[in-house]
Amino acid sequence: MVDKRKRPAKKAAGKAVPKTAKRAPNAAAGDTGRLQEVRAEIDGIDRRIQELITQRAHWAAKVRKAKGELKAAVEYYRPERESQILRRVLDRNQGPLSDEVLLRLFREIMSACLAQQEPLKVGFLGPEGTFSQQALHKHFGHSAQALPLASIEEVFQEIESGNADFGVVPVENSGQGTIQSTLDMFLTSRLKICGEVELRVHQHLLSRTGRLEDIERVYSHPQSLAQCKAWLRANLPHAEKVPVSSNAEAARRARVADDCAAIAGETAGQVYGLKVVAGPIEDRQDNTTRFLVIGREFFSPSGHDRTSLLVFVRDQPGALYNVLSPFARHGVSMNRIESRPAHSGRWQYVFFIDVSGHVEEGNVAQAMSELGEYASDVVVLGSYPVALL
């Protein structure tokens, strides 16, 4: 005869799940212990990183002392030296962080070290939130003092007057070509090109409501309107397109009415409190803008340089061929050529030419020595480090 009253006890004793559940806390404790070890190791690494950054800042201060008491931060800044440091960062990188991430980190460290006593003052085409400001931060880091200015001409003027140390101005776009107003400034300005920045440009449609159906008017810089014309034709064919001085100015205007929108970067939307309606909306996936860094002096070779020239040709047959032939003979690669009215007489033209190399070195110097035979005048706008990424 079976005693049925004992069955519940037997069933409970035979359960396997509770025994497994009792072992889980031990496993979890092991995982927690391992996690604490990993975090402790990361904390130690963070301390060492901070100590090394502090050491670097102290040595940067010693460099200032070694150079003597100079007048301003701009006199300590050496773009060729920064370019060499950053190229070594790229050469050493074996992952997992990308080249772009490491460059940004080191750029910010160098920017902070340089700005210990006084930051560089850098003008850009404002207002706040433009792609020019993004290019400025990419090149100089966030420790530089960014000065928003109303026009490209004003950027040049503030550097010439000494109110700004450097400036960042757009010069060409991969899809829309040259920004002519920038080139024309070099015809009369004595400023020099000290560097270049290439910025991958993503355009977004921004508005106060965030609804496409509300939009009757779109503000943007003419270049941005051109970069997005196919998207606008397909999605806002009847909306009025209004060109303005900058994309940030477009964002400022769009924030005052529900039926208005701006084409600009996401940063401008954040600055002016706009919502993203759509984006990226640029017609070309490789949409990139090149910016020039302008200042008051030349700098030494970095080892990976570009030289920009302003060449006035004589009015004679084969003038342009004669100007370019010295570069060909000496194996100098020409990166870009652009003609503009010379402003010195009717139907007179000047050529903007970019070549690989530094004007003080090797083949470029040899080619330059022969240019005078064929050009009425040659102005070296600058020899500067090639953009890294």
From TrEMBL:
This protein's pathway: Metabolic intermediate biosynthesis; prephenate biosynthesis; prephenate from chorismate: step 1/1; Amino-acid biosynthesis; L-phenylalanine biosynthesis; phenylpyruvate from prephenate: step 1/1
Site residues (Essential for prephenate dehydratase activity), renumbered to this chain: T289
Region Disordered: start-end pairs: 1-32
Annotated keywords: Amino-acid biosynthesis, Aromatic amino acid biosynthesis, Cytoplasm, Isomerase, Lyase, Multifunctional enzyme, Phenylalanine biosynthesis
Entry keyword Cytoplasm: yes
EC number(s) stated in the UniProt entry for this protein: 4.2.1.51, 5.4.99.5
Gene3D superfamilies assigned: 3.30.70.260, Chorismate mutase (1.20.59.10), Periplasmic binding protein-like II (3.40.190.10)
UniProt entry tagged with the keyword Coiled coil: no
Alphabetized PROSITE patterns for the sequence: ACT, CHORISMATE_MUT_2, PREPHENATE_DEHYDR_1, PREPHENATE_DEHYDR_3
Biased composition (Basic residues): 1-13
Molecular functions (GO terms): chorismate mutase activity; prephenate dehydratase activity
SUPFAM superfamilies listed in its UniProt record: ACT-like, Chorismate mutase II, Periplasmic binding protein-like II
Pfam family, one: ACT
Transmembrane spans: none
Enzymatic reactions: prephenate + H(+) = 3-phenylpyruvate + CO2 + H2O; chorismate = prephenate
Record's GO cellular component terms: cytoplasm
The Chorismate mutase domain, residue ranges: 29-121
GO biological process, one term: chorismate metabolic process
PANTHER family per record: PREPHENATE DEHYDRATASE P PROTEIN, PREPHENATE DEHYDRATASE-RELATED
Protein's job: Catalyzes the Claisen rearrangement of chorismate to prephenate and the decarboxylation/dehydration of prephenate to phenylpyruvate.
Name of the protein: Bifunctional chorismate mutase/prephenate dehydratase
Source organism per UniProt: Arenimonas maotaiensis
Protein encoded by which gene: pheA
